[in-house]
Write a structure and sequence with these properties.
Blueprint lengths: L1 H13 L14 E6 L4 H20 L4 E6 H6 L2 H5 L5 E3 L7 H9 L4 E3 L22 E5 L1 E2 L10 H5 L3 E2 L2 H13 L4 E5 L7 E4 L2 E4 H9 L6 E5 L8 H9 L6 E3 L7 H7 L5 H14 L4 E8 L6 H14 L3 E6 L7 H5 L6 H26 L3 E9 L6 E5 L5 E5 L8 E9 L3 E6 L2
Parallel strand pairs: 1-2, 2-3, 3-4, 5-8, 8-11, 12-13, 13-14, 17-19
Antiparallel strand pairs: 6-7, 9-10, 15-16, 15-18, 16-17, 18-19
Helix pairs in contact: 8-9, 12-14
Bound molecules: S-adenosyl-L-homocysteine (SAH) and iron/sulfur cluster.
Length: about 425
Amino acid sequence: MNFSDSEIVASILADQNYEPTTDIKSADLILLNTCSIRDNAEQRVRNRLNELHALKRKHPGLVIGLLGCMAERLKDKLLEEERHIDLIVGPDGYRQLPQLLEQVESGQKAINVLLSADETYADINPVRTGGSGVTAYISIMRGCENFCAYCVVPYTRGKERSRSPITIVKEARELFEQGFREVTLLGQNVNSYHWDENNQPVSFPALLREVASINPLLRVRFATSHPKDISDELLECIAAHDNICKSIHLPVQSGSTRMLGMMKRSYTREWYMDRIAAIRRIIPGCAITTDIIAGFCSETEEDHEQTLSVMREVGYDYAYMFKYSERPNTIAAKKYPDDVPEDIKSRRLDEIIALQQELSLKSNKLDVGKEFEVLAEGVSKRSDQQLFGRTSQNKVVVFPRSAFNPGDYVKVVTLSCTAATLRGELAK
Ligand code: SAH
Ligand code: SF4
C-alpha cells in the first residue's frame, strides 16, 4: 500500500516540477512514507529521522516531511517530538502537498491529517518509481472498517472506500500498453471491493474479470483478501481465467477460535478451513499464503499449538509472521492486557517461523520436475546469464537467460529448490 501511495505522491510532485533523485545529499525535499502497523516499524522511522536531522544540520534548506500512517496516528505531536520535521501529511492529504510545501517555503510548519470518506486518488496516474517495468500495483480501494482488535489501520487509513472501476481498468490497460505484464490490485480487504453507480453494482469478481479480459498476456494478482469475503463466486472467477494468478493470500492470524474471537476476525477456525477446502476444490494447485500473529493477549500454549496445527493442516506455501505489538488506542489496547511475556512471544514466533520454513521447502520440493510458465521480471543478482521470474503461484524461479528478456513468458522445468527459490532450465 505504501509503495503504491509513494507513486501517487511522486506523480503529484512531478506536476510541481519536482524530480526524484538517488543521491540523498543533493535532495531539497525528503519525504518518509511511514507505517504504524507494529511498534518496530515506527522505531525504524525514528532512527531514520535522526539520520536526517544530521543531514539537515549540514544543509539547512532541506525540507523533511513525514507521510502516511505514522503521520496520521501521531499528528502534531510529531512536530513537538521531532522538531526538524517541516511537514506532516496523512494518507488522504496528498493532493494538498503543493499548498503545504508553499507554506513550508514561507517559513511555517505544515500539517494535513484529515481523513476523507471518498478520496481514492482515482484520477492520479502514479509515477512508476524504481520498478521492473514488468509488474505494477494498482490501488483499488482505501481504508478499512473491520476494526480487528489489534490493528491500527482503521484509525490511520480511515473509512473503506472503493475506486471507480473505469479508472482502474483504464490504468491497467495503459500499463499493459506500456509493456507491463502483471498488475496487482491492492487494498486492505480487496474482496469487499464494491462500486455502485446508477444502480449498476460492480463486485470484486466483476472487476477482476474486466481487468483479466484486457489481454491474456496481462497477469492479474490481488492482495489482501479477508477470509470472511472469499466467496465461491470469486474462486470460480479465478479458476475460469488463465491469467488470474493461482495464488491467494488469506491471513489467518491464529489457529485458535478463542483468539480469533478476541481478535474480532469474524470467523472461526472451522469457517476458515471450510474456505481453504473451497480453494482446494475450485482451484486445484492454487498457492495459499498467510499472515500470523504470535502472542496476542492471553494466548496460551494450547492456542499457540492450534496455530501450528492450522499451518500444518493448510500447508501454507509462504507466510508473513509477526510478534503481537500493542498499538495505542486499538480495541485490544483498551480491553486486554498485553500479557504474554516477551520471551514467550519470541519463542512462539521462532517455532512458527521454523515450521513455515519446513512447509515452504516441502511445497517447493513438490514443484521440482514440473513445468511452469514463468513471467521473467529481471536479471538475477548473482549472474547476468540468469533471469528470475514468478510462476502463477507467485514462486520465484531462477533460470538461464538464453534469448529471453524481462517481460517475456518462459516455459521452465524446475530442477532444484530451497525454501525460498526454485531453479530451473528452459523446457525443451
Ligand atoms: N488488511 C490485511 C492486513 C493488513 S496488516 C488483512 O486483514 O489481512 C498486515 C498484517 O500485519 C496483518 O495481517 C497482521 O498479521 C499484522 N498485524 C497487524 N497489526 C498487528 C499488530 N498490532 N501486531 C502484530 N502484527 C500485526
Ligand atoms: Fe487491520 Fe483487520 Fe483491517 Fe486488515 S482487516 S487492515 S488486520 S483491521
